[in-house]
Every structure is written in C-alpha cells, then in structure tokens.
C-alpha cells in the first residue's frame, strides 16, 4: 500500500479530507496520512480508539511516535497518558495498548533508526517543558542527526516560518493557520518536500503546532527504491 509515498511532492490534508478505515483486527479506526506498506508499514496516521478498546501486545521495529490529542491512552494496562503527552517507543520495543474512555492519537510508525534505544515521555501540558527561544514558544520533543521535532505555540496573528533542506511536516493541534486566502483548521496535516520553506500566519485565537524537520532525506534513503 502506498499513500502519499512520493516525498518529492507537497501534501496537505484537512479534516474535510479524512477517510477513516478500520484496522485489520477492527480494534481502531485509522486516517492514513502517508504510508508505505500494508499492516507493517512506515506510516503517519491519526488513530481513534473507541471506549473500552484494546490492541494486543505487539512489537515496533523502527519504533513508534505518539502524540495524544484527546482522551486517555493506556500502555500495559497501567500507564495512563492523557491528551498532551508525547511518547517515543524505540526500535523493537513491545507494549500492549488500550483506552478505557477512548482517545485520538497522532502516530508515526517505523520512522526511527535502529540506534534509538531509549523511550521518551514528555508531558507537553507542563509549562516547565516549554522554552522561549528567539521570540518563539517551543516545547522540544526530540533531536538527532535525522530529525528535529517540537511543538510551537503561536500568538494570535503570529507568523510561523520554518526552512529545511530535508523536509518539513506540520500538524495543527489547536487553532488555525492562514496562507494567503487558504485556511488550515485544527487537524490539518502538511508535509513539504526537501529544500522547502513554510510560512503561515496564526488565526485570531493563535495556534499550537506539531513540527518535524530534517527527516525526509532519511525516509527517502531508507524507503524509496
């Protein structure tokens, strides 16, 4: 299966474009944003867990990255992560996941390297995890030679600018972004190719963004034949 697998092309998906698909076992609903592969795939998706749903224990070759958008995501029947938590489960990690009340997550599969071995758990609701850097309010999530990942809070009408020779990816968690007359509401996903520059303006209520840069060259090297 190939969904938006050409990393040389920009991709923009808004909530009005969503098409939800049941997982093979029917445990969850998935909105596939990009994908290379079938059930075991390099994938970026939104995943909805219904109340009382569960996934059996499974392993993650090349890791799993999760941002909880709403509800409560539970690992191994004991570790609860409400909306705002960011998780990285490294190469060959294993867990069982469930949600008693239901949840919505943004998830990336098989996009890490074999060298990433330590799990990451960051509560982005904690003000201590945010830093004012060059007039930008940033919550750093992860950095390596292959990617830089962070959240950014924009004030009303604030301009967001990001440049990267190796690709840019955005997910709008809250608020809106504008680009000319185009409006990107919360839930919109944007992927820009190598040597791109992103420039948007936050809406009147501001915006909170998930941002990843520097990662697409590695994806091309590993996945594009």
TrEMBL record:
Chain ranges of the ChrR-like cupin domain: 10-112
Signal peptide: none
Residues spanning the membrane: none
Taxonomic superkingdom: Bacteria
SUPFAM superfamilies, sorted: RmlC-like cupins
InterPro entries tied to this protein: ChrR-like_cupin_dom (IPR025979), RmlC-like_jellyroll (IPR014710), RmlC_Cupin_sf (IPR011051)
Stated name of the protein: Anti-sigma factor
